């Protein structure tokens, strides 16, 4: 595998896993007042488009990264609606 | 321009602009307690790697999207540290 692809995979792993601590914090403290619902809704729409982009480009890494981030963003939205 | 590239640009515009409402909310309410600092630090590292990836791939859209998102994420970090 080329170095540049490794760089892309590490970048994807970071920008995807970054949402885990936010999900954990919102779930643990049941407090989401400061989190912007608009951000996560717009972000989720973008992730869905990136996922479709990945399908057309037949790029597993784009599908995986945006698919997982999409699930995490969706969970934050659920927690936000639950613990306004 | 191919439809797939337009899809990518719209996806990039959404996942980039999504952070503007979060910056605005944090700046306006001066309250960031529920925002995960760990998320934004890890996310910023990922964005920096994506930016470097874009430079090597000579992809202006990857550089632009991740560069702007990186600036927005950096502002959220500053607001988070300022208004713990």
Automatic annotation (TrEMBL), chains A, B:
The keyword Membrane applies. It is found in: Membrane. The keyword Transmembrane helix applies. GO terms for cellular component: membrane. Keywords: Membrane, Transmembrane, Transmembrane helix. One of its GO terms (molecular function) is sugar transmembrane transporter activity. This is MtN3 and saliva related transmembrane protein. It comes from Saonia flava. The lineage of its organism: Bacteria, Pseudomonadati, Bacteroidota, Flavobacteriia, Flavobacteriales.
